[in-house]
Every structure is written in structure tokens, then in C-alpha cells.
Amino acid sequence: MSISRNVLEEIIREAGALALTYFNDLKKTDINKKAPRDFVTAADVAVEKFLKEKLTTQYPQFGFWGEESGQSDNQNQRWIVDPIDGTHSFTKAQYFWSISVALEIEGDIVFGAIYVPTVDDYYCAEKNKGAWKNGEITQVSNEPDLGNSMIATGFACLRSYLEDNNLARFCRIAQKTTGQRRFGSAAMDLCMVADGQVDAFWEQELNLYDVAAGALIVTEAGGTVTDFKGNEGIFPKQILATNKKLLPQILPLM
């Protein structure tokens, strides 16, 4: 795989700097809705355009799939990009949003990076080579007991008005754990599992661009990524990320 982690970090950090120019002056940022509960801003569009231009110029052999612009060129080998994961948080001037970039080759995620510009945290992973946070190796937590754990989730399913809305699942799991969090960016949630800030995360009814990079970062940091039945792989409609030790305890509650 002929990519440079350093070059990619430079591009993604530049995209983060661009996003911050909008974030720091939200009065001038157009905020619209793609659907009744689904926001899009001028920042989403501008950041994705920047990443598409930079990535496809640097690596013309790869196609592109962005949340806002859709799919183009070679979809067998492609960048998968969420320009602002956590757009609603972004529009409220909250810190919980991130930029997610993954490279997929023939259905296999081989590189992932997530940048959180508000706190300047940069996570990345390369398949079979490890995961890093700000240049240092990162690993999942060692917590063995669900009762002592902190978990995170999200409610994209509520936005879609689905009958299976995660509320019952959340109530079951929350009662078995010590701490519960809902940050609003699945990409950030997965990074928090990867560096041990939370011990497990699950969500449903997401898209591949929400989780592709984060899932690789979790597995390369020593964690597991499965569906709600324990099948390994990236399943955006049912994603469960754990520190591995908690998987047998949390699966029956799914």
C-alpha cells in the first residue's frame, strides 16, 4: 500500500484547521437540514471538498466516497470520508465532532484516521501495524468487569424514527455499568474505546463512513468490533466495540 501516514496526517490536520474557521464563527456558517433530524453545514461541504481534492490529487488511483458528495471514480479502492462526524454538536458549538478518513481496498479497511480539531487529538491506524494517538501507541482498557466499566452509545436510530430505537437496550446495559456517556460522534466514541477512555461502545443504523476509520483503530488497539451477535467485522447497522474482555458480558444484553 503506497500511502504515507505523514502526508495523510498533514492533509487531515489541514482539513481540521479549515473546519475550525467555520466552528469559531458559527454566525457565518450556513446550517441546513438534509432530513428532519439530519443537519448539514457549510463546513461539512467545504471540508469534504478540500479532502476530496487533496486525497485524489495525492493518490489518483483511489476513488472517493464522501457523506456529502457521494461516490466517484474507483469504488473498489476508495477513500471513505465523513467530513464532520457530529454535525449537530458542531452547530451547537460543542467540542464533540471529528473528521474521519478511511482507505478501503477491495472491501478491506487498511487505513483509518480520525482528527478531533477542538482538542487537537489525532488518531490513526494501519492494518496489522497498530494504532496511534498523537504519535504514541494507543491501546484499549484492561477493565475486565462490566460492572466497573464506562460505556458509550448513540441514538441515530431515533433520528430515523425506527421502532428498534436503542432505548430498551441502553436501559439494560446502563443498569449493569458504572458510567454511561453519549457524545454524539460515533467516530470519536470508537477512538475513546481505542485509547481506554471508555470500555465499550455500541450504536445502530449508522453508515460506513461513520465507523470505517474508527473500527480499524479499535481493532488495531487490541479491541473487538462485532455486530450485536458477536460476528466480527464492520457492521454499521449494528456496531459493538469493546476492549475484548467485556465482549462476553455485554453481548447477552444486546
CATH superfamily of the largest domain: Fructose-1,6-Bisphosphatase, subunit A, domain 1
Name the helix and strand elements from N-terminus to C-terminus, one letter apiece. Answer: HEEHEEEHEEEEEEHHEHEHEEH
Q: What is the CATH third-level topology name of the largest domain? A: Fructose-1,6-Bisphosphatase, Chain A, domain 1
Assign a percent range to the helix content: 25-40%
The number of helical segments is 8
Rg is 17 Å
The number of domains: 2
Distance between the termini: 37 Å
Largest sheet: 8 strands, mixed
Return the CATH class of the largest domain. Alpha Beta
- Unreliable residue runs: none
Q: Which structural class best describes the helix and strand composition? A: alpha+beta
Strand segment count:
15
Morphology:
globular
Percent of sequence in beta strands: 25-35%
Main sheet: which strands, in order across?
A: 4-3-5-6-7-8-9-10
What's the structural blueprint in terms of helices and strands?
Layout: H1 5-23, E1 31-35, E2 38-41, H2 42-58, E3 63-66, E4 70-72, E5 77-85, H3 87-91, E6 98-105, E7 108-116, E8 121-126, E9 130-133, E10 136-137, E11 150-153, H4 156-159, H5 167-174, E12 179-181, H6 186-194, E13 200-204, H7 208-220, E14 224-226, E15 238-242, H8 247-250
Parallel strand pairs: 3-5, 11-12, 11-13
Antiparallel strand pairs: 1-2, 3-4, 5-6, 6-7, 7-8, 8-9, 9-10, 13-15, 14-15
Helix pairs in contact: 1-2, 6-7
